[in-house]
Amino acid sequence: MSKGYYDEAYGILDGMFELDEELLDLPFLCNYYQTLLVTGRSEEAEETYDKMISLIRDKLQVSPDNAMKFAKKMYKGNRHLLAITLNRIAADLHFSSPKSSVSALGILKCIDRTRDAALDLIVCGSEYRACLEFGILPIMHDMKTKLLRCTEHCADKVLFHTRYSCFHIIECTELEIEDYESREQTLKDALEVMKAMYGESASHYQMYGTYLNNLGATYMATARYEEATDCYAQAIQAFHEAEDFENVEKKIKYIGDAEVALSAALRRN
Q1: Do 219 and 125 sit in the same domain of this protein?
Q2: Residue 249 CA to chain centroid, in angstroms?
């Protein structure tokens, strides 16, 4: 990392705390945590993270936004694991803040940025795929759980999309590493959340059809053609009922793509 990035980090943190001996442990804990993630020591990684986040909460007055700014700088500097760590910290700080639209949208952004850093990481080498599956994806699911809790009693319909869009970020990440078992469960959970939120009106939202369509694709990838056929048929119906497409052309394309996929599933069934 260049000196400029450290200068940027110093500028963010300067004046927020007086250094004490415990804070000297932070760089070590952070580096150790990343090492544990990469080497698949998940339990030890969680123990180390708990120590790190406790130290940050007790000793530093760091805002979630500042943690996210630092994470963004690390991502731009190709420090992907550090960016993931800082986004996780930011999500936890958002969750600890008074529950609000800012908290929910902040956590959603942390999930999205963690995905970006994780996918860039596996481009660096196939050895990081296991780290993504067993270390980073559980972090993203933990962020998702916190986001759902943040918006559990939310009456603001503008924020409803955060409750179900976070699943899309995660299921697309699971697809990248062909973790179909996890993706199937993520998609089923997303559909349940949307049905719980909107009831019979869930199909009025394009994302509901997208989740059904992607679940059908997951069944196709695992040679479960009868289930795929059912999902694609439901997706087509949902796309017809959806009222939030950006334009008619996009709606027609989604329906057409799902019909092609349904035909392929029927041929295999």
Answers
A1: no
A2: 29
- Residues in CB range of 23: below 8 A, 6 or more apart: 17, 55, 59, 60
Question: What residue type is assigned to position 46 of the chain?
Answer: E
Long-range pairs for 74-79: beta carbons < 8 A, 24 or more residues apart: 74/1, 74/5, 75/113, 75/116, 75/117, 75/120, 77/1, 77/2, 77/5, 78/120, 79/1, 79/5
Q: Which of these ranges, 19-28, 44-53, 154-163, 180-189, has the smallest mean pLDDT?
A: 19-28
* Averaged pLDDT, 86-108: 90
What secondary structure, in 3-state letters, does 93-149 show?
Answer: HHHHCCCCHHHHHHHHHHHHHHHHHHHHHHHHCHHHHHHHHHHHHHHHHHHHHHHHH
The residue type of 23 is L
Kindly state the tokens that stand for 42: 């998940």
CATH number, position 197: 1.25.40
Do 12 and 113 lie in one domain? The reply is yes
**Residue 230 belongs to what domain range?**
178-269
Among 56-60, 97-101, 183-187, 265-269, which is the least confidently predicted range? 97-101
In 3D, which of 90, 33, 9, 32 has the Cα closest to residue 56?
Answer: 90
